[in-house]
Amino acid sequence: MSFLAGEYLFALMGLLVPLVIHLWSKKEGKVIKVGSIRFFPKQETKKSQSIRLHELGLLVLRCLMVIFLVGILVQPLIRTKKNRQKHVILVEGELWADDRFTLIKDSLIRSQGYELRLLQKGFPLAEEDINVQQETIHYWQLLQSARKLEADSISVFAQSRLRAFKGKRPKVPYILQWYTVPGNKTSEFIAEAYHGTDGINVLSVRTSPDVTHIRHYVINEAGTAEVKSKEEGGNHYVKTDGQENWIKANVPVQQRIYIWYDQAFTEDSYFMEAAIKSIEQHLGIAFKVLRQLSSEYQETGPTDLVIWLSQTSYPGGSSKSIVYAHDPVSSMIIQPSLQSEKYYLTNKLSYDVVFQEDLIAHLLPLIFDLYRTDSLITALDKRVATSDQRKAIQQNVDIQGERSQQAGIPYFVWVLFAVLFLAERVLSFMRKQ
Questions:
Q1: Quick one: pLDDT at residue 262?
Q2: 90 phi/psi in degrees, rounded to 5
Q3: Alpha carbon 251 to chain centroid distance?
Q4: Which residues of 279-311 are buried (b: 16+ CB within 10 A; e: fewer)?
Q5: Measured CA distances, 135 to 94, 104, 119, 124, 218 (Å)
Q6: Phi then psi dihedrals of residue 51, to 5 deg
């Protein structure tokens, strides 16, 4: 037997407490009232000292209470021998009809009698005509739910996509083997498209099991060999050969950007304006940029972005803003704040800061919302997690055939503890101990 919280075994030293109390307690002598002691003969008194335990029943009750309490705290684990016979194979739905998995399905599973289930909510038994659910998979949550299968070992066949490993790494009470069956090829999907001065600007996500990156390129309205284009209802739509849905090419609204600065930040304002001009050239669209002294600040109506380069507090309202707030320990030149659409410029600008901290890359998604690419990458990412990233924590599993199971505290134990406590209180009151 082992214990889940073995450190509480030190509480057994509490058995010394009732023992010491009983050793120090003295039994009261009987008082006999007499009329006079004048006729009692004088005798020499002898002092003797001995250690004796009184009220043994009460002592036993108190010791049993301590032992019961410690037994509840340590949460015993009972090791039982068991021949592992239940083996479950969980296969991701997208792999069920994959030719690469067919060989495994026919040889390993059918010949050895493994239990085959789908890696999805509820873990349904996999049959030839089963309806595979199209759902977002979170591997850690599914492995945690797999406890209810009561399997001794589980083998998982999955694409092991990095985006599906979310949340806390689980602790599992079974032997887990993970097999990765990655996607066949590199895929490219158009995520966003918009009209620019030189044609249709395309943002595409190119992803493979090894790497995912975003490409930005310009095509004409007739399309290219890689990108198909069509016009419908006065709008242009684009897609790649392997893409099902057409993506509408948006017409971006001209952005209004205000730069307010102190005299001490004049050079910073020029760097900021130059960075915005570079973004204009990269995107192929024009912005309306105004640069003014902060001492002349006034409300300017609807504004897409305000850049405040001053030591004084920004007096503006709810517009998206970048406010100077020096932070020497920050690792980012533009740091998000706790408030929505509020950002901090953490350092004064210079040639070195602009290039080393990559100011343009930080400004781009704030100025042009289509470049907020986190959601695009998450939806299309095919990168495969490494072996360390997909390793769950195996808990209380012994490959020699023994399994540790937590012994739940039966109801009668609590009842017995309550009876001992009441008996100790009553007996202590009656004995005046």
A1: 94
A2: -110, 125
A3: 38
A4: bbeebbbebebebeebeebeeeeebbbbbbbbe
A5: 11, 24, 11, 14, 34
A6: -105, 120
Is the pLDDT assigned to residue 34 strictly greater than 60?
yes
Asked if 138 and 144 count as a contact pair (C-beta separation under 8 A), the reply is no
d(CA 148, CA 119): 14
pLDDT digits (tens, 9 = 90+) for 136-147: 788 999 999 998
Spatial distance between the Cα atoms of 172 and 270, rounded to a whole number of angstroms: 57
Indicate the pLDDT class of residue 377, thresholds 50, 70 and 90.
low
List Cα–Cα distances, 385 to 119, 134, 139, 181, 388, in angstroms: 17, 21, 11, 11, 8
Under 8 Å CB-to-CB from 15, ≥6 apart: which residues?
A: 63, 66, 67
What whole-number distance in Å separates Cα of residue 295 and Cα of residue 260?
9
Q: Where do we find the tokens 């509490």?
A: 14
C-alpha dihedral, 370 to 373 to 374 to 375, nearest 10°: 60
C-alpha span between 18 and 12 (Å, rounded): 12
pTM: 0.54
Q: How far apart are CA 406 and CA 404, in angstroms?
A: 7
Q: 360 and 135 in contact (C-beta within 8 Å)? A: no
As beta bridge partners, residue 78 has 405
Q: Please give the pLDDT value at position 310.
A: 93
Return the half-sphere exposure (C-beta side, CA atoms, 13 A cut-off) of residue 76: 12
